Amino acid sequence: MLKIGIFLFTNDLRIEDNPALAQASREMDKLICLHCSEQPTPSSTIRGPAKLSNHRLYFLQQSLQALDQNLKHHHQHLLMREQSVLDIVPELITLYNVSHIYSSYHAGWYENHQWKILTSRYPGIVFQQQHSHSLFDEHQLPFNVADLPDSFSKFRRVIERVKIIAPEPALISMPPSPLAENSFKPLAESTQATDNGMFEGGENAGLRHLNRYFSQNLASTYKKTRNGLDGMNYSTKFSPWLANGSISVRSIMSKLRDYERDIESNDSTYWIFFELLWREYYQWYARRHQSALFTFKGIGTGNPSTSFYPERYQKWCNGNTPFPIVNALMNQLNNTGYMSNRGRQLVASCFVHELNLDWRYGAAYMEKQLIDYDTASNWGNWQYLAGVGADPRGHRKFDLNKQTATYDPTGEFVHRWQGSSNFEPLDSMDAADWPI
Ligand SMILES: Cc1cc2nc3c(=O)[nH]c(=O)nc-3n(C[C@H](O)[C@H](O)[C@H](O)COP(=O)(O)OP(=O)(O)OC[C@H]3O[C@@H](n4cnc5c(N)ncnc54)[C@H](O)[C@@H]3O)c2cc1C
């Protein structure tokens, strides 16, 4: 009897170094390559923007199109559905007598929940998952996930000694699909989507970017430049392709090691690894803390003293706060779908500590805007800055004036992104306006 499987693409939108896809290709006679764009999201549990930003949508659309093209080189194609996995998978199981379902592990609680529902509904089907979004497989960790070190430093000290798995050899062939080939359909909502001109989605574009980055020797100065606010070269800009899995973190590590061997190994090249370990920490942190990643008190014991003020929230989103640097950064985010790491720290600090807003609304806004949105990195970093996450020193408050003087000393960034043109007082109603 023919073995027919489904490969469920999630945040692994690539052909190369995709261990679960390689396994499915080896084991199945026929394979359905599926992507469901209706994803369960943490932000749907609280009020926030309902839709993905046009930038995020555009980048996703390009990434899916590129994946479909690459699958075609293997006589395959991508079945795209704007439905939930829980709606479409049961239909395919019945229609094609599916016996196996494959996917990559996802750090997100909501995504895992869907997978668990499927596995409990279909005990007769073989479900297989592999790690393709992290540097390490779970069995390599020198601790159980439940015993994840409670700070990044402790984690780094033990994990740095573990050998990183090399990327998989190139995929040679794939089994054919049992479905008739259909032409690639854009996501319905993506007709409004816009190109930010900075990032091109997809595996081939991601690999080109990776090669370009290392061929320009930028890695040798990364540690000195990484806190920049604007431009393509001050930091690696790997995050958009890493987030949806168009390139794998193990391929990046392999390129970094080649660079260190052939060109130069210094503090800066080590620091790229150091930052990738932060990413790694948050992947396992999300697995460890599950739905607590999205709760107000996070992994702490008490609720923060912040709240939700709709007017302040809107001003932050629209870049109309009394803080020019924050306005410029938010304008940059709204216009490109990207913001530097330093920028994210400043706007998040402002959100929580100056505007006294409930951190989850800021995280939910970034979830919709960022083209490099990653469940674990986004919600983990927000928790950290709000003082409800993995930070032994409690909450992080940045002095916005001092930060502006350090990172935008000439005012060029604030000027370029019009941070001073639109600012308004924090609240249009003050205490004197309250009716007695
Ligand atoms: C409030 C907030 C929200 C964030 N949301 C996201 C998100 O949704 N997706 C995301 O990928 N990153 C997120 N980050 C982390 C970081 O800002 C971005 O990874 C980084 O700015 C991406 O640009 P880059 O690739 O040029 O980074 P580089 O400085 O070149 O770093 C190299 C890589 O290391 C990883 N990395 C660097 N810093 C961090 C960090 N603090 N946490 C986790 N990984 C890190 C990323 O994978 C990055 O691509 C967030 C940070 C903050 C403070």
Describe this structure in words.
- With 436 residues, the chain is α/β, with parallel strands linked by helices.
- The chain folds into three domains: 1-132, Rossmann fold (3-Layer(aba) Sandwich), CATH 3.40.50.620; 134-165 and 202-289, Serine Threonine Protein Phosphatase 5, Tetratricopeptide repeat (Alpha Horseshoe), CATH 1.25.40; 310-429, Orthogonal Bundle (DNA Cyclobutane Dipyrimidine Photolyase, subunit A, domain 3), CATH 1.10.579.
- It has helices spanning 19-27, 54-72, 85-96, 109-121, 152-159, 203-215, 222-225, 239-243, 249-262, 267-289, 310-318, 324-336, 341-354, 359-369, 375-386, 400-407, 412-416; strands at residues 4-9, 30-36, 78-81, 100-104, 126-130.
- A five-stranded parallel beta sheet has the order 3-2-1-4-5, with helices on both faces.
- Strand 4, helix 4 and strand 5 (126-130) form a beta-alpha-beta unit.
- The mean pLDDT is 92.
- The site of flavin-adenine dinucleotide (FAD) has 29 residues, from helix 8, helix 10, helix 13 and helix 15.
